[in-house]
C-alpha cells in the first residue's frame, strides 16, 4: 500500500520516510501544492518496474514465456496422470 504525505512532512522527516521506502519496499506519494505530485521508489523497486515493463512489451519474449509455461503444465499434467 502506498503512503501519502505532504511536501512539508517529507521535509520534516526525510530520513524516516526514505528508510521506510527502502526497508519496506513501500512507494511514497508526495502531494504538492499544485498537481505535480511525486512518487518515491527505492532503486530496487524502480529497477524491477522497468524490467517488468521491458519484458511485458517484448512480444517475442512473451511468446517464449507462454510456450515454456505450456510445456511445464504439460509435464505436470503427464506426471500426475501416471
TrEMBL record:
Stated role: Antitoxin component of a type II toxin-antitoxin (TA) system.
InterPro entries xrefs: Antitoxin_Phd/YefM, YefM-like_sf
Family matches, as Pfam families: PhdYeFM_antitox
Coiled-coil boundaries: none
Organism for this UniProt entry: Lactiplantibacillus mudanjiangensis
SUPFAM superfamilies reported for this sequence: YefM-like
Family: Belongs to the phD/YefM antitoxin family.
Protein name: Antitoxin
